[in-house]
Specification:
Mean pLDDT: 79
Protein name: F-box domain-containing protein
Low-confidence stretches: 1-19, 44-86, 205-210, 419-426, 432-437
Pfam family, one: WD40
CATH superfamily of the largest domain: YVTN repeat-like/Quinoprotein amine dehydrogenase
Number of domains: 4
Structural class: alpha+beta
Number of helices: 12
InterPro entries: F-box-like_dom_sf (IPR036047), F-box_dom (IPR001810), WD40/YVTN_repeat-like_dom_sf (IPR015943), WD40_PAC1 (IPR020472), WD40_repeat_CS (IPR019775), WD40_repeat_dom_sf (IPR036322), WD40_rpt (IPR001680)
Distance between the termini: 115 Å
Strand content: 25-35%
Shape: elongated
Keywords: Repeat, WD repeat
Helix content: 25-40%
Length: 437
């Protein structure tokens, strides 16, 4: 039996002038001491035998004089230390040590510097368990969520002083902070500071924002990602698509991950925009390819051999050959399943690319047709006769002839009944198609 387990009783025997005990009494005391320590581990109060003499006339201690064997409530009673006042073993808030009240009154009377000095001295005298208890009591005082306690308007006003980067970090703190940090008006102000004036329409039309998804925040994050890509990510080296040798590239189309190039070597080549490799070569024209259009896996090409060809980009097979023009097919425009082609024979033709049938011919230009646009309802064409014409392809009627250019019309664009024409002479005229103004 370790010596420390006998200390309470060794202390008791010292009070009785070190009188010797017999073996039975010693073993009995050891058993009682062991039970006492087990109960102490379970959180019960410590007790020490009273000062009254528990010995009888023979001068020896007896078991029936230990009060725990007679009174089960003794473990919850008070203990008496020799020469000291009666005191509760475990002090509580309702029953503190009597000296504590005096000490607290003295502490309250001190100045701030004196209090700090007293606290420092107290901490130095504390054991690690007591210091740990201090930390558990003090730390929660500095962990108040003041943002969640404030009204929403005041909380947003506080968060508005944060930089966007810090605002994103604050959103990761808890749900209430995230709800506030996702406020749409808050991110609108951040966007204005960053020079973002409106939300991209494509992003707005994809889906309606949820309760915790700010469209202004999405716009800011998109702009920031683009800016960081330009600043930090290295510029990829360009891919060189070599395959037409020394021939001229006359037309180019791009759709998805495919690039289609036409050349005066009578071929078209389909390239992978990802790898830069040629996937297949479309062979079939007997003259140089001067115009092309692509939609999905469908490719239409026009050539100096006066024909149009419809190709399957996946297989490289020519699906249809469209005959009708009497000169080079110089331009075309695909809309849905119909394509309108313009030729140096001064005519335009409308074709069905699914069946390969010829549908309409538009006659009226006096020189080669150089550019054409088709929106499914109207056809607008520009030619070397300095004129722009607006057609109804179903009736093959010229609705308007737009005059005023003094040189060849090389290109034009139509958008929402508006048409912009660009001339070789760099003059630009703007017309309203519906009113021919």
């Amino acid at each position: 039996m370790p010596l420390f387990k006998l200390q309470p009783y060794l202390f008791y025997t010292s009070l009785k002038d070190n009188k010797k005990l017999n073996n039975d009494e010693i073993f009995t005391i050891i058993d009682i001491t062991y039970d006492f320590l087990e109960k102490k581990k379970a959180g019960r109060q410590q007790w020490i035998p009273q000062q009254e003499d528990p010995t009888r006339g023979d001068g020896h201690a007896h078991i029936d004089h230990f009060p725990e064997h007679h009174d089960p409530s003794f473990r919850h009673s008070i203990c008496r230390y020799p020469g000291s006042r009666t005191r509760a073993v475990i002090p509580t808030k309702d029953n503190p040590p009597p000296e504590m009240s005096e000490w607290l009154m003295q502490f309250s009377a001190w100045s701030n510097a004196e209090r700090i000095m007293a606290i420092n001295e107290l901490i130095e005298r504390c054991e690690p368990t007591q210091v740990r208890h201090m930390m558990q009591v003090i730390e929660p005082q500095f962990q108040r969520d003041f943002i969640s306690l404030l009204p929403k308007e005041l909380a947003l006003s506080v968060l508005s002083f944060l930089e966007p980067r810090d605002l994103l970090r604050a959103a990761q703190t808890c749900r209430s902070w995230r709800f506030l940090a996702e406020d749409n008006l808050l991110w609108k102000e951040k966007c204005k500071q960053a020079g973002i004036e409106e939300i991209p329409r494509k992003r707005m039309s994809q889906r309606s924002p949820g309760p915790h998804l700010s469209p202004w925040k999405s716009a800011y994050m998109r702009q920031h990602a683009i800016e960081m890509n330009w600043r930090t990510k290295p510029i990829r080296p360009p891919k060189m698509l070599k395959g037409h040798d020394d021939h001229v590239i006359t037309c180019l189309q791009f759709c998805g991950n495919r690039i289609v190039s036409g050349s005066d070597d009578n071929t078209l080549k389909v390239w992978s925009a990802t790898t830069g490799k040629c996937q297949r070569t479309l062979v079939g024209h007997t003259g140089g390819v001067w115009s092309s259009q692509m939609s999905g896996s469908t490719i239409i090409s026009g050539s100096t051999d006066r024909t149009l060809k419809v190709w399957d980009a996946d297989t490289g097979v020519c699906l249809h050959t469209l005959y009708g023009h009497t000169s080079t097919v110089r331009c075309m425009h695909l809309h849905g399943k119909k394509v309108v082609s313009g030729s140096r024979d001064a005519t335009l033709r409308v074709w069905d690319i699914e069946s390969g049938n010829f549908l309409h011919v538009l006659v009226g230009h006096l020189a080669a047709v150089r550019c054409v646009q088709y929106d499914g309802r109207l056809v607008v064409s520009g030619a070397y006769d300095y004129m722009v014409k607006v057609w109804n392809p179903e009736t093959e009627e010229c609705l308007h002839t737009l005059q005023g250019h003094t040189n060849r019309v090389y290109s034009l664009q139509v958008s929402n009944e508006k048409m912009l024409q660009t001339l070789l002479s760099t003059r630009v005229d703007y017309y309203a198609v519906s009113g021919c103004k």
